[in-house]
Amino acid sequence: MGRGLMKALGGSKGKKMKIEVDPAIGRPKDRVESAKFSSQVGVVARDVLPVPRKWKEINVQNALNPCIDHMQIHMDVNMDKPGVKQCVIDRLRSSSRQQRYRLHQHYKKFVNLQEAKRNKPAQVSDQQQWELLCDHFESPEFKNQSQANSNNRKKMRAKHITGRMPFTIIQNEIIWAEGDDCDMIELYKSTHENVNGKWSSDVAKDNWEQMVETKEKYSEEGIEKSEQEIVTEVLGHANGYIKGLGYGPKPPGKRNSQLHKELEETRAELEESRTDKEAYESTVDALTDQLKEQAAQIVKLMAFLQAGGRSVDQEGNQELDDSNNSGEK
């Protein structure tokens, strides 16, 4: 990370940097905030999150919540906004997968399983965890999946030209520079065609032309389709992301289901709070009635004592108590 960016990230001493994550793209729109966010996710994934054999082994309460708390110590992320927490979890999952990949590369340096187990890398603190990962790397299931992933990477012919820069950051910079919207179809073109009009591959050019033709077809037929839906239709999607657009843009159904889930959770929390509030108010009302009744009894008792043992009726007339009446007879 360059000095200029580090200086920008530093901000005021002792003050946490405010990070605004956009749930629609899975990261901050601002370039500096996005860099800081990605860096902190990487640190947390490396230093706090245990590396699982599979993501489903991760426990939310014991593993993910401490990671989120750790991030909040170092930056002010808008976690209260629906969808943001899931974005953070998705990024932690991606970083965890990258960490596991790097550990697998270390594992492959050794001639056999036993030698690999004896050479635990420094970034893994627990020997038992490293041995479990080694057993996982040696399993037929992992080897088959690893080979399949390798074959898929070799088939990737529509490579982009943006390096490590997220597409969503490029999209926002186009919007800021041109003062107009940058739809997903134009974003694909901007990330696969250089300034001289040369495409990264014939496949990328064919994909873009198909997107344009599909958009025109839907327009002629009077069918409303968003650019993102058209891009997803042409490129396809896998595991919650649109192929060819990297991390950030998600298929509409995936993004909507995440936001809907968090919205329902928020509604449930509000309903629980409302129920608790009503129960509290009911208790307060009951206690208030009891206090009023006790106050009335105290007033009546004080009046009785001031009257020298005579009770006072509602008209203010004094009546002798039973002991006085019995003494007059």
From TrEMBL:
Coiled-coil features, chain-numbered ranges: 256-297
Task: State the organism's lineage.
Answer: Eukaryota, Viridiplantae, Streptophyta, Embryophyta, Tracheophyta
Q: Which Pfam families match?
A: Transposase_24
Q: Where is this region: Disordered?
A: 310-329
| Keyword 4Fe-4S belongs to the record | no
- What name appears for this protein in its UniProt entry? Transposase, Ptta/En/Spm, plant
Give the superkingdom in one word. Eukaryota
Record the organism: Castilleja foliolosa
Keyword terms: Coiled coil
